[in-house]
Amino acid sequence: MSGPSRFRLPALLRRLPFTDWGGDPPIVPRSGWAAALTALTALAMSFLAVLTLSAGIAADRLAENWRSELAGVATVRISAPRDDLEARVTAALTVLATAPGIIDARLLSEAEHLMLLEPWLGAGNWLDDLPVPRLIEVKVAEPGPDRAQMQARLDAAAPGAVYDDHALWRQPLVRAATALRRLAWFATALIALAAAGMVALAARSTLAVNAEVVRVIRLIGGEDRFIENAFVHRLATRAALGGLAGAVLGAASLALMPELAPGTALALSLGPDPADLATLLLAVPAVAAMIAWATARHSVRLMLRQMY
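The structure corresponding to this sequence follows.
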């Protein structure tokens, strides 16, 4: 087979960016600093992407858990001298029973008080030793009663009673979760840009080192599409393998992370659930390969135009 016909592959094969060119001359070296740089960059960037995305997912999950627990629920806290406490509790329950927008009101028992305070103050039967206020759990119908009007009625009937619809807790939580989510996406975008820059550097450097080989292939009839696809295929494959290794390493690191503040109200697990983890393990290497493919294709195409 003559030289020119050897490089004139069928048009369909030439259009496939991930085609392995089999026995054709290895235009892109299988080893070297450029190959190692591409794989290492994809590994590191995928590892960081898994961590940043998992942090955003964990923050969003924590905010959603707190938001779902606080939605539709309010509390009434009653502080008073021991001799007058029960009378004020009864008066507050009477007000809540007749207030519009209230579905149910229930006084928490001593055991429930202990259960609520144990994550913060530890175990122990110490309610008799501390001036712990009584708590009434209130179930409200959306949008719930007017907070100011409800507080005014409680002030008149049971001084020392405080109505809390948890709005002061929910709003900052939603804002913080939104900010963390945006930060995670911004960090992931920066990681993708850095990976694209390193792949572009590796592609241009490899092509420059093999410039003489490229010129010879052109002289004997090789088309630029064949040269371009050879570079893109090798770099994208290395990026995909490096991205897979980085994603697995990131997932393993998250799996080994202990739960933060276990057994407390601030408990948080940074590890994503199995569904999110599977999505990350599939998506991160695929995105790494696509970034490498697009960047290498653009860089090589521009550089081939500049070569005579």
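The chain is about 65% helix and 5% strand.
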